[in-house]
């Protein structure tokens, strides 16, 4: 049986402070580090081993993966980092407090920005210092690939080529895979794997630091899924 483990990074400093994050490269909070270590020790205790890991180019995911692999004595395995697993770009909301934005625009609008399929947050402008085009880590991206904002739909469209070209082939080669990513890049993957309709995806949220195990058939279709909470 094929098992695929997905995990959202541990709590970040901006998760803790309730600030829209997106592509901002915010570090883990102390609690997030604890969550990551706990995830690693649960995976180890349950007998999981990985041959390859995939993560984003954002440190909250990368460091979560480090702590997990360290707990599992697997720091030697190959790690592939890709912008395609980054959090959804939160546009002009990045850096703003979620409660304050809700006060200004209303809960309903903020819920649409946060959880709907195809309502992107307001975009950045080209001269905004939050625009990722000036960040060296994205220098290999074309202008069209660098987002000013993203809906979940946009996130799915930039992530799926990576699933098809890198993650799914690794699974087919019988490699045991862990993916450490973000709330919305994982919602994109879960929507795809579970074939969740566009109008149902708003109901799905993914918690920080808890391994989500997918059991897949040979065609990589899910047969079962569960969280490993260690209780
Ligand atoms: O701020 C963000 O980038 C994300 C994840 O923390 O927030 P949300 O819960 O609104 O998707």
TrEMBL record:
The Gene Ontology terms for molecular function here are: phosphoglycerate mutase activity
Listed A to Z, the keywords are: Gluconeogenesis, Glycolysis, Isomerase
What this protein catalyses is: (2R)-2-phosphoglycerate = (2R)-3-phosphoglycerate
Give residue numbers for the site Transition state stabilizer: 182
Enzyme class of the recorded protein, top EC level: isomerase
Q: Which InterPro entries match?
A: His_Pase_superF_clade-1 (IPR013078), His_PPase_superfam (IPR029033), PG/BPGM_mutase_AS (IPR001345), Phosphogly_mut1 (IPR005952)
Q: Where does substrate bind?
A: 8-15, 21-22, 60, 87-90, 98, 114-115, 183-184
| CDD domains xrefs | HP_PGM_like
* Enzyme Commission code: 5.4.2.11
User: Pathway, according to UniProt?
Assistant: Carbohydrate degradation; glycolysis; pyruvate from D-glyceraldehyde 3-phosphate: step 3/5
Q: Per the UniProt entry, what are the Gene Ontology biological process annotations, in alphabetical order?
A: gluconeogenesis; glycolytic process
The positions flagged as active site in the entry are 9, 87
Pfam families linked to this entry: His_Phos_1
Q: Which family does it belong to?
A: Belongs to the phosphoglycerate mutase family. BPG-dependent PGAM subfamily.
What does this gene product do?
Catalyzes the interconversion of 2-phosphoglycerate and 3-phosphoglycerate.
Name it.
Answer: 2,3-bisphosphoglycerate-dependent phosphoglycerate mutase
The taxonomic lineage of its organism, from the top, reads: Bacteria, Pseudomonadati, Planctomycetota, Candidatus Brocadiia, Candidatus Brocadiales
Gene name as annotated? gpm
